[in-house]
Amino acid sequence: MRYFFLLIFILFTSLNASSIKIAVAANVSYAMDDLIKEFNKTHPNTEVKVILGSSGKLTAQIFHGAPYDIFISANMKYPNKLYKDKIAINEPVVYAQGSLALFSSKNIDFSQGIMFLKNNQIKRIAVANPKTAPYGQAAFEAFNNAKILKDIKKKLIYAESIAQTLSYALTATDIGIVAKSSLFSKKMTKYKKNINWVEINSKIYTPINQGIVMLKHSKDIKAFYDFILSKEAKQIFERYGYLVL
Fold first, then answer.
1. What domains, with CATH codes, occur in the chain?
2. pLDDT tens for residues 104-149?
């Protein structure tokens, strides 16, 4: 009899289980495990499947029919386009603001800030592709406003996403312009502020409004969307170096 009730419980749970597919900009990947864990405290039967990529590439996939339910973008440009073209079912909302940091696996004298990129000992600089990644666009805005782009252009090594930029900075370049949020992941805790990384002055670029939209509607999709805008989620975003409104 005990096994009968166990079987009924398993069948009932599986019938009530559901899954949602979330297209997530690479810079948000570091916070996603904690966000999903917190969401599953109140929605234990909802499996959240995450597809990571640059905001531009994910948007292209969505336009070509990729079966995603929610898009969590690294800026507002792409979700606004999806809403304008009537692919997103709600107007984009800002869930957090992203910021930039200089990062190196080596010990660096960051007293010069972004101007240090001109230094002769810096041969290769990782940066996200500004054509597809909002953090790359923000980095180039900073380069231009600091009037250093001409001096460092030949040093730039382009990554397809901000996550790949961090990978390059760890393994293939002297330094990288990364999402500040990436420096709060567990694997990065050994790298210290003002020794391995420093924030880039936000006065020389526009902090990045990051937007979320729903692409389909269901009870579970709406629940996760509402959670991302909740106080609990904002606390997690803050822990990972984001600004929250």
1. 2-97+208-239 (3.40.190.10), 100-204 (3.40.190.10)
2. 999 988 999 999 999 999 999 999 999 878 889 999 999 999 999 9
Instruction: Please return the burial class of 173, using the count of CB atoms within 10 Å of its CB with bins 0-12, 13-18 and 19+.
Output: buried
Rounded Cα distance, 223 and 212, in Å: 13
Sign of CA dihedral 228, 177, 194, 189: positive
pLDDT-derived band at 10, boundaries 50, 70, 90: very low
Q: Which two tokens stand for residue 224?
A: 């996760």
pLDDT digits (tens, 9 = 90+) for 58-80: 999 999 999 999 999 988 999 99
Whole-angstrom Cα distance, residue 245 to residue 240?
Answer: 15
The pair of three-digit structure tokens given for residue 94, joined into one six-digit string: 């800002």
80 class by beta-carbon count within 10 Å (0-12 exposed, 13-18 middle, 19+ buried) = middle
